[in-house]
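Exercise 7. Given the components listed, write out the predicted structure of the assembled complex. Treat all entries as one system.
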Amino acid sequence: MAEHQLHPDNWVDQYADYLFNYAVARVSDAEIAKDLVQETFFAGLNSAKNYKGDAAERTWLIAILKRKVIDHYRKINSKKGKAEVRVNYAASSDSEGDWIEEQVADPFSQDGDNALENEELGSAIQECISKLPRKQAMVFQMKTIQGMSTEDICNELGINPSNLWVMIHRARTALMGCLNDNWF
Amino acid sequence: MKISCEEASHICTKSQYKEASFWEILKLRLHILYCKTCAHYSKRNGTLTSLCDKAGLNVLSKEDKECMKKDLEKRL
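Answer.
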């Protein structure tokens, strides 16, 4: 029975970053993404009684977030005409001529693929981080992702620098193993 | 000049964050010359750094999380 229960008090700690990354990749705006994550938690809370335990908590929350992202795009496109795709030169540019030939996708460009691959890489890393012990994960994120200085982290967590390096070292070793299995 | 593998891996991790000193890096380089295991390790460590950079990970700040928690608690 225990597995069928949700633990909303742990949601923020456990899933906020994962959901946030997912949302940022789709709406490319940190503020909007933050709001979407928040709304997802609220919605999850409201429909908690519908949770049957078929899926893991995180999968369930991601499914809600997906709907939130779609709703977001619906909302910003709701004014008539905004959803139209207009193919033209930007108003500011003064170029003219055979624009369609200039606008086709560059077959040699890999930007699209790269963006997609990096997004997958992001969730693979996030997944691996979530498997680390809590404290190691926290230190690793502070150092690597937020780029905080060693001194600041030590002050905040009340540990000494050699402690911190040992933790980061262990986290990195575990991550390397995990990514080796899941990414390469 | 000679250092243990443990110390080498320690310096290697530090250098991923550009916090190893010049001497430490020199010692590490020297160690890598004759220690295959550490050479492999430091290569993988470097790969991890570049992967993390490439993925462009984001995290919510602590304040944001606290805010979220409070809002969520209100509704519980």
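Discussion: Chain A has two domains: 2-76, 121-182. The two ends of chain A are 37 Å apart (CA to CA).
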